[in-house]
Amino acid sequence: QKEVEQNSGPLSVPEGAIASLNCTYSDRGSQSFFWYRQYSGKSPELIMFIYSNGDKEDGRFTAQLNKASQYVSLLIRDSQPSDSATYLCAVQRTGTYKYIFGTGTRLKVLA
Amino acid sequence: GAGVSQSPSNKVTEKGKDVELRCDPISGHTALYWYRQSLGQGLEFLIYFQGNSAPDKSGLPSDRFSAERTGGSVSTLTIQRTQQEDSAVYLCASSLLAGVSGANVLTFGAGSRLTVL
Fold first, then answer.
1. Which of A12, A17, A36, B39 has the highest Cβ tally under 10 A?
2. Model pLDDT for residues B68-85, shown as the tens digit of each residue
3. Which residues have C-beta within 8 Å of that of residue B90, sequence separation ≥ 6?
């Protein structure tokens, strides 16, 4: 079992729809969770992070964390073609500064 | 500096040669990370530094890989006797440590693309 798992996609959604991206992790003691966006040929850039159970909203983005289920998700409302990218989930390993990334989910927003 | 700077941006080498990749983190960032990303793949953790020490080297693929950081700033990743499977983008990131329980955001450099012929 990989430490951080994501569906590789591609996930295709029409413009204006909600895109839902999911991530599961194996280390129950993991503390902080991050979503990065990576455009083709570019470096990852932070979208948002979350470390408390529940929802965290930032503009069109909402991160959801459920530690009991070891599950973190990212919702993108009113998806735009410019949101088309690979979304990487990252988890901070317990008691360390080490961050493990999932393989990413490729999102395609269709105009 | 204003961002994380990596050099070279592109390196083509022959199998068996040694290469050095350099990372200059954001000024004041205590932590520095090296990741590797093969074509179409996710980020593979290699090593991270807290100051000049490397608490976790577990991601280095083999003893051909080594890294050092001096002066709490610049880091060099060295790959000896390169193999074709070493071809990838090597990404460096830095972070201002906010405490183990805090959320430390990684800022990435543009990467060094290594091609081993």
1. A36
2. 999 889 999 999 999 999
3. B6, B21, B34, B35, B36, B37, B46, B77, B111, B112, B113, B114
